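ok new one. same drill as before - C-alpha cells go in, u give me an amino acid for every spot. 252 of them this time. try not to just spam alanines like last time pls lmao
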C-alpha cells in the first residue's frame, strides 16, 4: 500500500521530511521523495489548468447561446486574432461580443485541443508520480532498530515452543516415504521428469477426490471426456488393423 499523497503536501498538513528520514532509515534513496513532490506539483498545475479550460468552455457556450438568442449572423470566417487566442484561459463573455458565432466555435475547437493536451499531460505525470511513489516504503516506526542487516532485527516476543529442528524439503519427505522415482521418470520424460508411486499416488487421488467432492457440493457437474488420438500416432503404439472396425474414430 502506497503512502497518501497528502503526506507529501505541506499545505495539506504533510511533512515530507518525515518521509525522507524514513527512507534514510531504510537505507533507501531519499531523493525519490523530492521527485514525487515535483511530479505532484506539476500534476496539480495541470489539474488547475484543466479546471480553468472547462470553465472557459462554459463561457464560450454561454456567448454562443446569447448570440443565437439574438439571432446574430453566424458568419463564415472563423479566423480569430492571436491576441484573443492567447487569452483562451481567461476570456470573459464581454471579450467575445465582437466575435461571430463561427469565430467563437473556432475558439471552442482550440479549447478542446488544449483540454486534450492537458489531460494527456496529467495522465503521464500521474503515471510517473505513481511509479516513483511505489518505490517509497511505509514510514518506519520509531521503535524499529535502524540497520541494513536483518541480523540486527529485534525479537519483540516469542510464543510456544521455539526449539530449532531440522527442516525437511519436499524432496526429503517424498524420499523418506518412498513416494517417487526420479531416475526412471527422468529416463522416460527427460530432465525433471518423475514417477509418483506408493503413498503419493494414493495422496494425489485423494486430493482429486476431495476437489471433485467440493465442486459437486457447489453445484458443478463432473465430466470425464473421451481422449482423441490421431491414427498415425496410435499406429506407433498399437496394431490398428485388427481394431479398425471396432474403434470409435473421427474422420478428418
Amino acid at each position: 500500500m502506497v503512502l497518501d499523497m497528502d503526506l507529501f503536501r505541506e499545505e495539506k498538513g504533510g511533512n515530507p521530511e518525515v518521509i525522507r528520514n524514513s527512507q534514510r532509515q531504510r537505507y533507501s534513496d531519499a531523493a525519490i521523495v523530492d521527485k514525487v513532490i515535483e511530479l505532484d506539483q506539476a500534476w496539480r498545475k495541470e489539474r488547475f489548468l484543466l479546471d480553468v479550460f472547462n470553465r472557459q468552455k462554459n463561457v464560450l457556450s454561454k456567448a454562443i447561446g446569447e448570440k443565437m438568442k439574438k439571432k446574430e449572423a453566424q458568419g463564415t470566417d472563423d479566423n480569430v486574432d492571436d491576441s484573443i487566442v492567447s487569452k483562451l484561459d481567461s476570456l470573459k463573455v464581454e471579450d467575445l461580443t465582437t466575435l461571430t458565432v463561427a469565430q467563437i466555435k473556432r475558439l471552442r475547437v482550440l479549447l478542446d485541443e488544449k483540454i486534450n493536451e492537458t489531460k494527456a499531460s496529467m495522465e503521464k505525470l500521474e503515471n510517473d508520480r505513481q511509479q516513483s511513489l511505489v518505490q517509497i516504503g511505509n514510514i518506519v516506526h520509531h521503535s524499529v532498530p535502524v540497520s541494513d542487516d536483518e541480523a540486527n532485527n529485534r525479537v519483540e516476543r516469542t510464543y510456544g515452543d521455539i526449539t530449532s529442528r531440522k527442516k525437511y524439503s519436499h524432496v526429503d519427505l517424498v524420499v523418506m516415504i518412498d513416494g517417487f522415482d526420479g531416475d526412471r521418470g527422468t529416463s522416460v520424460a527427460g530432465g525433471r521428469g518423475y514417477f509418483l508411486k506408493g503413498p503419493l499416488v494414493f495422496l494425489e487421488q485423494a486430493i482429486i477426490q476431495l476437489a471433485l467432492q467440493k465442486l459437486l457440493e457447489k453445484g458443478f457437474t463432473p465430466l470425464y471426456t473421451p481422449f482423441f488420438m490421431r491414427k498415425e500416432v496410435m499406429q506407433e503404439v498399437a496394431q490398428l488393423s485388427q481394431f479398425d472396425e471396432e474403434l470409435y474414430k473421427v474422420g478428418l
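The helical segments are 16-25, 31-69, 82-85, 101-133, 170-176, 182-189, 199-217, 231-234. and btw DSSP finds eight helices and two strands in the chain.
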